């Protein structure tokens, strides 16, 4: 469960039954927009088991062994490698100003920033833009589709899952790297991402009466913000609100 799992919460209006009610046969009934909820909950349970046994301990070890400045450099380099993918999606969405910013970021960070180890572009006032193929498909009018809990990857939906697969083929840097290097980049990126979210996910998990419902709500509001679908609350984020506690 990575950075898309943080940090926006949608206040629910009902009790836990609104997030996951039970039918007359006692089986878990799905929530609107989440028809695969029983399966999704099983996948989340499996994800949490893997996280407890492997991912969180590895992330803690990574934090303990690798100094903060080195972790920041690794994170910057990984972000820099993804800039061509962001650029491609900026162009596909017709966001040409963002595409220009992304191009400048990649140029400055790859040269002055020593291959992206230093995020000099941000220091120059060129903020990082977003851009993924799920976002592109949304801009083309494709609906979200059902909510999905993916093994290891965490919350998503059918449109964004297709987009995630497509993004894997859109970055030309990935074509130039050997298979082993791409695997290593993915593994290191996942460990670094898990390290960044240790406290946040711990708080979310320990403070939720229904972690599945809360995580779904967090992810959906974050994704809405990324797509520009911010509701009446504007950009306000309240990660302390628990749908299960209503």
From TrEMBL:
**Segments passing through the bilayer:** none
This protein's superkingdom?
Bacteria
Q: For this UniProt entry, which residues form the secretion signal?
A: 1-20
For whether the record's keyword set contains Cell division, the answer is no
**Keywords attached to this entry:** Lipoprotein, Signal
Q: Does the keyword Nucleotidyltransferase apply?
A: no
PANTHER family, per the entry:
INTERMEMBRANE PHOSPHOLIPID TRANSPORT SYSTEM LIPOPROTEIN MLAA, LIPOPROTEIN VACJ-RELATED
Which protein family is named in the record? Belongs to the MlaA family.
What's this protein's name?
VacJ family lipoprotein
């Amino acid at each position: 469960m990575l950075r898309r799992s943080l940090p926006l919460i949608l206040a629910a209006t009902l009790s836990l039954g609104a997030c996951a009610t039970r039918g007359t046969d006692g089986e878990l009934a799905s929530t609107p927009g989440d028809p695969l909820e029983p399966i999704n909950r099983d996948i989340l349970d499996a994800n949490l088991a893997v996280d407890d046994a492997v991912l969180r301990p590895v992330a803690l070890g990574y934090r303990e062994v690798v100094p903060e400045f080195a972790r920041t450099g690794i994170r910057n380099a990984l972000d820099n490698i993804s800039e061509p993918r962001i650029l491609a999606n900026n162009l596909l969405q017709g966001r040409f100003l963002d595409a220009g910013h992304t191009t400048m970021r990649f140029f400055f960070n790859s040269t002055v920033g020593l291959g992206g180890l230093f995020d000099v572009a941000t220091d120059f006032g060129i903020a990082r833009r977003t851009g993924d193929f799920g976002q592109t498909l949304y801009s083309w009018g494709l609906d979200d589709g059902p909510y999905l809990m993916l093994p290891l990857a965490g919350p998503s939906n059918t449109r964004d899952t297709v987009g995630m697969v497509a993004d894997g083929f859109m970055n030309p840097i990935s074509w130039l790297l050997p298979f082993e290097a791409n695997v290593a980049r993915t593994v290191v990126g996942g460990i670094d991402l898990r390290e960044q979210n240790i406290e946040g996910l711990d708080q979310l998990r320990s403070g939720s009466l229904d972690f599945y419902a809360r995580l779904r709500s967090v992810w959906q509001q974050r994704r809405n913000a990324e797509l520009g679908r911010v509701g009446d609350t504007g950009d306000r984020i309240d990660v302390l609100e628990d749908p299960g506690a209503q």
